[in-house]
Amino acid sequence: MHSLKKHSTIALGYFFLIALLGVILRLFPIVSISSNYKFLVHTHSHVALLGWVYTALSTIIFKQYLQSANVSKKYNRIFWLTQITIIGMLVSFPFTGYAFLSILFSTLFLISSYLFVWLVFKFTPNKQKQRNSYKLIRIALWYMIISSLGPWMLGIIMQTSGQGSSLYKNAIYFYLHFQYNGWFIIAVLGVFLHILEQHFISFSKKVFNSFFWLLNSSVIATFFISILWMKPPFIINSLAAMGCIFQLIAFGFLLKLIKANKLKLKSIFSSFLGKILILSGVLFLVKLVLQLTVCIPFIADIVSYNVDFVIGYIHWIFLGVVSIPILTFLFDYQLATKSKALLVIYISGFILTEILIFYKGIINWLQLNIINNYYHYLATSSGIILLALFGLFIIQFKSKNRRLFS
């Protein structure tokens, strides 16, 4: 448990660092910064996905499925190899962008992640493999592997079609889609179901099979949302919409399970963490509705030319739908020191930031004048997130602060 707490603290450290990078990026329109904006964006995105989310999820998955499998030495070797690759990206991307060193560390990360997948698939006890939650974790890990086809193809595409080509953009969208909608979200659902199963709450075999196939069909079909910017035939919009509807139905199955076991759930999670998980569900529902509306050609056309809508949507998933439940799971498993106050501050900063990003998207769409000092407000709201994550990171080390903020 001690080493897992250390790993969770490292994950939170990455979360703090990407928040710091986020604030720096927000300051570019306000003050003169002698750094390459594009290089910092690459650093921000890579450390966000691979540093914070991957490290946190892999730590939780190890605790749930491998802690009793006597593979701690193997896991620790893979973990620290992975950390070397992430730190390599952290120190190379800001200065070189996509160049030899950053590509080398990115490639080594992919190989390290494959080793972790091998560890989970090979050493998870057979009894655990029968659980519905493991089936979700297994397919989530497969989606992580599938997503890596995007980066592997980028080198070939850059040599043949170039960075400005449709193939190049779609390879990136392919990677992001299967990371966010495949690996991240399904892994979060798998972790949640595992916690429920520990308290004898589970889908029946028939209902789970329907839930599972609806969920996975939706992951495949909603990829078509990523290529709507190309204005494909209407059948592609229809397939994307079908995937969104499948996801909504699957979410309905989950809500039904939660509602049927409402009293039990109150005894599993504290009142505060229960409310945070309800918020996560609301954020996920909003995400499902937003992606369904984008399947309408008129709206898809607006979104494809409005980067603020895209950024707002990606941050909605990353900072809200994915990161908030991950923090909740770390607190629930006592892998990280809980702070109600700091989590509320984080959520407040997240909501303020989303409001401001979508506001700018609407203003640009309607071709109106933006409010004075907009970028100052946006930087301040990002600063609130940074403050909360700095506090969360620091209290992992100081017992006095634990009592103060708990």
Descriptive keywords:
single chain, 406 residues, mainly alpha, 17 helices, 82% helix, globular
3D structure, described in words:
- The C terminus is likely disordered.
- This protein is mainly α and 406 residues long.
- The radius of gyration is 21 Å and the shape is globular.
Cα-atom Rg, whole angstroms?
Answer: 21 Å
Number of helices: 17
Q: What can be said about the biggest beta sheet?
A: none
Share of residues in strands: under 5%
General form: globular
* SSE string, helices as H and strands as E: HHHHHHHHHHHHHHHHH
Please state the structural category: mainly alpha
Question: Which residues form runs of ≥5 with pLDDT under 50?
Answer: 400-406
Report the strand count.
Answer: 0
Helix share of residues?
A: over 70%
Mean pLDDT: 93
What is the first-to-last residue Cα distance? 20 Å
Topology:
Blueprint: H1 2-27, H2 37-65, H3 72-96, H4 100-123, H5 126-129, H6 132-147, H7 149-160, H8 166-197, H9 205-221, H10 234-260, H11 262-268, H12 271-293, H13 297-304, H14 307-332, H15 340-366, H16 374-395, H17 399-405
Short description:
Helix content is about 80%, strand content about 0%. It is an all-alpha fold and about 400 residues long.
